[in-house]
């Protein structure tokens, strides 16, 4: 919550909680909050896992809690005393003084912005707004409130809003997630966000969006709980980075815009999430009397990095935004009036509604006043209590009207009032092991999109001795746990490894971290497995996992190809040090790097897989490494081994994984993926951002863990460029079977070439409308100089006058901008020997910096440097312009 007046308002909201055990009974205090969050997490748990309500479930819960408490006490005893942050960089003044126990200490760190702005019906929302006002006008208060909170249903939807039959409102099913519809049958496993990021293909992102949306729609899902642009990827080992596209805001923003408009074009509302600065899993939830982590961000970093892709999603019309679990500047994400009322609803002119992440509501009145419009998965702290708050004047009824208007307007905006929209949850049975109606949501029109999507997110980073493509090898030897399918692809009642995409991972570890939030200390993290050793992976784990009707593993597809070619195959997917037939034409080693919601990754490499690769490479002079990596994976233990001839980052391709890989390995398709992140040589090269902040080791902030984003905008390549660190593979890098040449750079200013310092336009969805005025156009030609066709990702980077290399003395250190920032990319397909022209439009926003005093995007006078090429460090064309 905005830690100022709103906290006081929570105090004023006593009627909301009076009489409840553990409810608020006065001004916000840590212990009261702890009690509420405990209560919240209990209902969240039992909703996610109803079996916990059974006797057996209760016994299991008690045992697990005792184990966790036991482990926790042991862990605490082992921690060094007096260390504030347990290894993180967080925690201002952490060492001195007594532990802070009252949230009031933090009041004012996140400014209060109120009142909550009403929906205006701007732009394309005019009609939906008018219709929504009319419908809401006919509702009783009770009906209105029924739209603001999740309700039980007989469906398997992640969240459900009941119908109001008398007004022909059909209700709403909200379901996970951004990479495909999870936890049901007859749907597809689409490539995950990171894989789409690695494809750098806007058209593909759009097609994938349409394909996914069709499946959600057929199943009767009104709100697709995705796409993800938060986490952005600040914490290199973040457990959910794979759900989003890229750590670069421009790349993520471009791909989220395509995704949102495609999904919504098919009539399904997108819930772009998690708003905002939700950068790590560790301490994401309150546990006992310890609050969620606070992401402490300055205004400029917020705008230039974290808000940027959300801005693109809002501009693309996203009908819903999900507020996040953690705190922002010490105010909870779903009660933060600065981020919700201020940034989202005022500055970005957001027209849709804000839903809480599941169980992320920790205050009643404060969340209503801060701009949250719907709580999930149950009533949380609203329901009848919100009704009391309206009658005692703590929440004006106009606020309720606006919540409901936004919800109903989004429903109209996507045409969900039409009869053609399937009834909510129609294809989402609660338990797939019980008889249910078959609703086959797959659409064969999108088969090629599934395959192309899988192909294009593979990134080739090493290929020597013409190792690839393979040419009808006589003998292939295959190694590694990630080549084959896990033994289980089967639902198991309401919840099972399958439900959360962890069939290849250790399920106990997953449960401990995802369900019981046990991974909040450095020691718990160290004990986690970095890999999914029981088979290959198609997505990461947790609510963003995918379900599938069919999966093709690398092994499946290689067997098929070997049959066609008459290739002999040997394999050993078990031994850490297998025997190797020295007559093998090539040896393929398959490993993975797993990541899941609820848990930050323990490491960026693992000795087991690296040992296996080195062992095979010692015995096979053509060792090809394929890593399914749900995040950055370091390769320095083997990359320079003379017998490691090819290395592929295979990311998370979805169900077509094996088929896509074989198309690439045998050269029927060309590699065209590029890294959407920087691969360092060593962990230390990422500086303080390698792991999550813990802030739990004692000291003043032990009950309020802190994460200071003091690195500002210097994450990933911005950090490597600034510090002159040589990466192993730079952002934007990826090999092809052909080579491309660049020429004919043209940089041209629009109009008469003079532009005002600040935008002057009205606020439309996404912000001031002239932020998207095209100020400069860049053109270039790219020639395919090899003898095979290929696609090339042509990238444009811009250094602003205030950049580190801009030499502008007028700018102080705090206003310095990165040496270069991605500001355009296109992916033409170029036939061997041919040339393609590409054009990029640089907008006012692309060329501006966020001015914290003016509270606006400022266009500086001075020299702008433009680089064009195929990675952040290979920019053969360079030009400049001045403003
Ligand atoms: C996740 C969300 C998800 C929701 C519903 C939460 O735990 O953070 O991303 O959409 O659950 O399953």
Automatic annotation (TrEMBL):
<dbReference type="InterPro" id="IPR013783">
    <property type="entry name" value="Ig-like_fold"/>
</dbReference>
<keyword id="KW-0136">Cellulose degradation</keyword>
<dbReference type="InterPro" id="IPR026891">
    <property type="entry name" value="Fn3-like"/>
</dbReference>
<dbReference type="InterPro" id="IPR002772">
    <property type="entry name" value="Glyco_hydro_3_C"/>
</dbReference>
<feature type="compositionally biased region" description="Basic and acidic residues">
    <location>
        <begin position="1"/>
        <end position="10"/>
    </location>
</feature>
<dbReference type="Pfam" id="PF14310">
    <property type="entry name" value="Fn3-like"/>
</dbReference>
<protein>
    <recommendedName>
        <fullName>beta-glucosidase</fullName>
        <ecNumber>3.2.1.21</ecNumber>
    </recommendedName>
</protein>
<keyword id="KW-0964">Secreted</keyword>
<dbReference type="GO" id="GO:0030245">
    <property type="term" value="P:cellulose catabolic process"/>
</dbReference>
<feature type="compositionally biased region" description="Low complexity">
    <location>
        <begin position="803"/>
        <end position="814"/>
    </location>
</feature>
<feature type="transmembrane region" description="Helical">
    <location>
        <begin position="59"/>
        <end position="79"/>
    </location>
</feature>
<dbReference type="InterPro" id="IPR050288">
    <property type="entry name" value="Cellulose_deg_GH3"/>
</dbReference>
<comment type="similarity">
    <text>Belongs to the glycosyl hydrolase 3 family.</text>
</comment>
<feature type="domain" description="Fibronectin type III-like">
    <location>
        <begin position="792"/>
        <end position="872"/>
    </location>
</feature>
<keyword id="KW-0732">Signal</keyword>
<dbReference type="InterPro" id="IPR017853">
    <property type="entry name" value="GH"/>
</dbReference>
<keyword id="KW-0325">Glycoprotein</keyword>
<dbReference type="InterPro" id="IPR001764">
    <property type="entry name" value="Glyco_hydro_3_N"/>
</dbReference>
<keyword id="KW-0119">Carbohydrate metabolism</keyword>
<feature type="region of interest" description="Disordered">
    <location>
        <begin position="1"/>
        <end position="39"/>
    </location>
</feature>
<keyword id="KW-0326">Glycosidase</keyword>
<keyword id="KW-1133">Transmembrane helix</keyword>
<keyword id="KW-0624">Polysaccharide degradation</keyword>
<feature type="region of interest" description="Disordered">
    <location>
        <begin position="803"/>
        <end position="822"/>
    </location>
</feature>
<dbReference type="GO" id="GO:0008422">
    <property type="term" value="F:beta-glucosidase activity"/>
</dbReference>
<dbReference type="GO" id="GO:0005576">
    <property type="term" value="C:extracellular region"/>
</dbReference>
<comment type="pathway">
    <text>Glycan metabolism; cellulose degradation.</text>
</comment>
<keyword id="KW-0378">Hydrolase</keyword>
<feature type="compositionally biased region" description="Polar residues">
    <location>
        <begin position="28"/>
        <end position="39"/>
    </location>
</feature>
<dbReference type="InterPro" id="IPR019800">
    <property type="entry name" value="Glyco_hydro_3_AS"/>
</dbReference>
<dbReference type="InterPro" id="IPR036881">
    <property type="entry name" value="Glyco_hydro_3_C_sf"/>
</dbReference>
<dbReference type="InterPro" id="IPR036962">
    <property type="entry name" value="Glyco_hydro_3_N_sf"/>
</dbReference>
<keyword id="KW-0472">Membrane</keyword>
<dbReference type="Pfam" id="PF01915">
    <property type="entry name" value="Glyco_hydro_3_C"/>
</dbReference>
<keyword id="KW-0812">Transmembrane</keyword>
<dbReference type="Pfam" id="PF00933">
    <property type="entry name" value="Glyco_hydro_3"/>
</dbReference>
